[in-house]
Amino acid sequence: MDWRELDLDEITEWPIIPQLLVILLLCLCIQGAGYWFWLQPIQESIEQSKLDEISLKTTVKYKYNQVAAMPKMKDQLNELNLRYEFLSQQLPAQKELASMLSGINQVGIQNKLTFTRIDWGEKQNKTFLYKLPLNIELTGQYHDIGSFSEAMADLPRIVSLENIDIQRVSKESSTLHFRVMAYTYQFRGDHE
């Protein structure tokens, strides 16, 4: 049989082997076109869906952990609120500044110290607080200055000591000149 003699118009009269080969070739072409135009887009969609599923599982796991931690976080928030209230009660109001200054002076006198200077500096504006500097200069013995510093920490209002400078009054004397910048804080009115 000569393949060149076969005519497509007479395909039904061809021998069985060439007919089967043409049918097989047509089936392969239809399958290739079906894969290319129908299955491949579906596979890409399935792959994208799998990636979305992984992303959603991660999100659900994260949200689940957040929900599971919610009671613990509420307890921590309550504890922080209690600490905040406790600390805010330790900040002096404007009307308490004079009595606070008097209290610091009294602590110094009780520790046998002599003040050469004690006055408020200029208010410094911070994010939600005012930082109030207090210039303190005094003279006294080393242990008395240490007791004074300890008593300052025990005051009912927050006072922090910075820029501490201790020098002898004279070379022969055991009396010291103590200069410190103390700070306390106040809530700003617009954030209360």
From TrEMBL:
InterPro entries for the chain? PilO, Transl_elong_EF1B/ribsomal_bS6
- TM region positions: 20-39
**Superkingdom of source:** Bacteria
Protein keywords: Membrane, Transmembrane, Transmembrane helix
What does the record list as GO biological process? type IV pilus assembly; type IV pilus-dependent motility
Q: Supply the PANTHER family for this chain.
A: FIMBRIAL ASSEMBLY PROTEIN PILO-LIKE PROTEIN-RELATED (PTHR39555), TYPE IV PILUS INNER MEMBRANE COMPONENT PILO (PTHR39555:SF1)
What is the name of this protein? Pili assembly protein PilO
* Gene expressing this chain: pilO
